[in-house]
Amino acid sequence: MLEIGCGTGLNFRYILEYLDPAAGQLTGLDFSADMLKRARKRVVARGWSNVELVQGDATALELDRQFDAVFFGYSLTMIPDWMAALRRAQAHLRPGGTLVVLDFGRFHGWGPLAPLWRGWLRVNHVETLRPYADELRRLFDRCAVRYWLGGYNFTAVGHKGP
Ligand SMILES: C[S@@+](CC[C@H](N)C(=O)[O-])C[C@H]1O[C@@H](n2cnc3c(N)ncnc32)[C@H](O)[C@@H]1O
């Protein structure tokens, strides 16, 4: 399993609950050395021997292996060339593998607060108005996209065909 834009590794413990501790490997990728330093501290403190951390750019990802699952957690909307990141993620999925995205939505149910949220996020390098769902549906054979809390966030689950 690969988490792209893993940051400090906040999601690792939730992911590890679903991995076989003996056989399941988790790779956390981020381009920030500072984030990875903090993630490494967490990994060492928890004694997670099946977690590997890799510094790299999601948009130019070239790992020498494929994964059963790839996860973007609040990272896709921060990546300017997000289409390249999705293409590289898809290339790193084994046939039959699953891509999961959790990220901010467009706040469609938030009325006049919606542009304020989107503007605030944009100041923080998060772009919510790109056509993420369309591109995910185009890239993956089956892709279910769901919006939560009036578009506060969305989940997308895509499957790579055999
Ligand atoms: C908002 S944080 C999310 C961290 C983590 N996934 C979480 O949910 O706690 C987004 C992360 O994406 C990373 N990131 C942004 N662009 C990236 C890129 N092109 N390649 C790899 N990581 C990237 C940032 O360094 C940051 O750590």
Unreliable stretches covering 5 or more consecutive residues: none
How much strand content do the residues show?
25-35%
Through-space gap between termini: 18 Å
The top level CATH class name:
Alpha Beta
Mean pLDDT: 97
The helical percent reads 25-40%
Largest sheet: 7 strands, mixed
Task: Describe, in plain words, how this protein is organized in 3D.
This protein is an alpha/beta fold and 162 residues long. The protein is built from 5 helices and 7 strands. The protein has a single domain, classed as 3-Layer(aba) Sandwich (Rossmann fold), CATH 3.40.50.150. It has a 7-stranded mixed sheet with strand order 3-2-1-4-5-7-6, with helices on both faces. Helix 3 packs parallel to helix 5. It is globular and about 50 Å long. The site of S-adenosylmethionine has 18 residues, from strand 2.
Topology:
Layout: E1 2-4, H1 12-16, E2 26-30, H2 33-46, E3 51-55, E4 67-73, H3 82-91, E5 93-104, H4 113-123, H5 132-139, E6 142-148, E7 153-159
Parallel strand pairs: 1-2, 1-4, 2-3, 4-5
Antiparallel strand pairs: 5-7, 6-7
Helix pairs in contact: 3-5
The protein binds S-adenosylmethionine (SAM).
